[in-house]
Amino acid sequence: MELVLVSCTPEVEALVATALLTTTSGAKPSALFHRLQGDPTRVREIVGKVETQHGSILEHNRLGWVLEAKEGEVLKILLDSRFFNVLRLEDSKWLLSANLRTVVEYIGKKKDAFAGALLKSLRDVAPTLCSCIEAGRL
Asked: Which of 15, 33, 99, 117 could cross-link to 3 by cystine, CB 3.0-4.6 Å?
């Protein structure tokens, strides 16, 4: 099984931080996002403190991967989580998409090769969230 992240909502951690602050601040989400866009240190601080009682702060994004896997492996992923969207590209090549909530929930429930590949694929686009997942805070 091979998983390659090919697309992602820009500034995904800034969006997560915006969603988190929106629940505790009277500021408009767009103003919060524009403020956070220019302050990656603040984004890391906010996202690093994230604890989800419900995962809605992780839903405002989309990630896309190309997955090379057997049909049975893809069926197992779909049975384990109904929130992944999958489209066959070729015989053993699939386009897979989801939001961070789906990814975090899958990694939290499963300790299989696919969960490991998902976590690895997030390292460049959501490094703070990866650290939270690895520390068991998400």
From this structure: 117
